[in-house]
Amino acid sequence: MDTDDAQLVLRESEFAQFRELIYRIAGISLADSKKPLVAGRLHKRLRHHGLGSYAEYFKLITQRDDELQTAVDLLTTNETHFFREEKHFHFLRDRVLAEHPKGRTFRVWSAASSSGQEAYSLAMLLADTLGERPWEVFGSDISTRVLDQARSGQYRMAQAHEIPQPYLRAYCLKGVGRQEGTFIMDPGIRNRVSFRQINLNERLPDVGVFDVIFLRNVLIYFQNETKRAVVSRLIERLRPGGYFVVGHSESLNGVVAGLDPVVASVYRKP
Fold first, then answer.
1. What is the mean pLDDT of residues 260-266?
2. Where would I find the CheR-type methyltransferase domain in this sequence (predicted)?
3. Percent of the chain at pLDDT above 90?
4. Known binding positions for S-adenosyl-L-methionine
5. Is 87-268 assigned to CATH 3.40.50.150?
6. Helix, strand or coil for residue 65?
7. Which of 46, 118, 134, 223 suits a disulfide with 105, CB 3.0-4.6 Å?
8. What is the pLDDT of residues 16-42, one digit of tens each?
9. Could you tell me which of 197, 204, 263 has the C-alpha nearest to residue 232?
């Protein structure tokens, strides 16, 4: 069917279908205000498949797992930056790493890593602070598309200003030729960071235990029941004495027991 853009209006009933689907799969609650976002992000997929309505596209994703994953990727990707909410990185360096036992591998999980900026920010800080001492960064996300970018470790040069200059010089390589206008994380950093697709709204795979788990600016999209379930799953993967970090605008007060507040948006497992 030829697509007439003038007819591509996301109806309330169609929006309700996509909203229920994303909630069921990812636990994410899309507010009414997100309707234009849903329409905008899915519009290109309708044009790609030559479909004339969002209802037709919804039928398609119920029949094709690959297109369902594409839709999930588009509707769950969130904005991220290098060294976002930098106070958390200062806390990690000055408090957490300072008290970490020297003989044990330090493990940190970026549990909603998106395209990898948070994970690589953590890796640069650990490389600078711990040096040759053992450490590793694990990143996960529900979106396969952003994880592909994260694994590449390549970003637009416009994002370089978010990285402290000493880190930029030590751990980032400027693109030349066809790669001009981008930079890539140094292989020594990329090799210490791994990524895996994980849906936090489902039973977690065996990924070991961690000294710190970052779950920042994600809980705001969950209803309380989902928040409790997701945080409870993650706490099981946190080492006793480990730290759980949420976004500055988020709180675990009244959400889950088993974590003690340390400073704003940082909690510790007894």
1. 94
2. 3-270
3. 65
4. 78, 80, 84, 118, 141, 199-200, 216-217
5. yes
6. helix
7. 134
8. 999 888 888 888 888 888 889 889 889
9. 204
